[in-house]
Each structure stands twice: as C-alpha cells, then as structure tokens.
Backbone:
C-alpha cells in the first residue's frame, strides 16, 4: 500500500475508533500522524524511549485495524455513502426525465433535500 493511502486509511480508522484507544495511545498517534512529530520528539514529549513510541504506534495501528475487522463501521459507512449517492443520482435522472410534471419534481426535490441534509 502506498504510504499516502495508508496514512489516509489510518486517519479514517482513528476517526472511527480512536476513542477506543488508551489516552496515551491517542496522544502518541495524534503527535505522530497529525502533528508530524518524529519518534524522538514524541519520546521526549511523553517521556518514553523512541522504541517505546514505535511500539505504541504499531500497537495502536493493530488495534484500529482489529476494531474495523470486527465492527466494520468504515465499510458500512462507505456502503451507505455510495447508496446515498446512487439514490441522489437516480432522483436527478427522474427529475430531468419528468420536468413537465411539477408535482412529481417538487416531491423529488424535497426528497433530494432530505438526502443532501444527510451529507452535511
């Protein structure tokens, strides 16, 4: 996996499951992945060894992947997002095919607004 893709994946995992990590794991993860501190800088900040920081990061990553493998929240979220997009696109098609039917297009636009509000 390309490093950038892995970083995005880890950040998404953290967004969904970060609160399940210990406070120390969250701090180390945030300092490394969000604040871009080096292992040595983090070690100094949290007063553990550089190897300890490395081990904590690996343990956190492993835990985040384990949570997703069991709970599948990101997978479900992605499927829901795709379904909402598909529904939205279908509504747009129906609206464009039925522009002469004001009553139908008005009702479809109302549904579309509800869907759009879900994504906000």
Residues:
């Amino acid at each position: 996996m390309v490093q950038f893709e892995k970083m995005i994946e880890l950040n998404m995992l953290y967004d969904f499951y970060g609160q399940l990590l210990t406070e120390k794991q969250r701090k180390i993860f945030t300092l490394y992945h969000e604040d871009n501190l080096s292992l040595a800088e983090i070690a100094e900040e949290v007063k553990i060894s550089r190897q300890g920081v490395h081990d904590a990061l690996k343990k956190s990553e492993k835990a985040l992947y384990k949570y997703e493998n069991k709970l599948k929240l990101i997978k479900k979220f992605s499927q829901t997002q795709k379904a909402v997009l598909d529904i939205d696109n279908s509504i747009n098609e129906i609206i464009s095919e039925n522009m002469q039917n004001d009553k139908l297009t008005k009702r479809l636009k109302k549904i579309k607004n509800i869907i759009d509000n879900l994504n906000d």
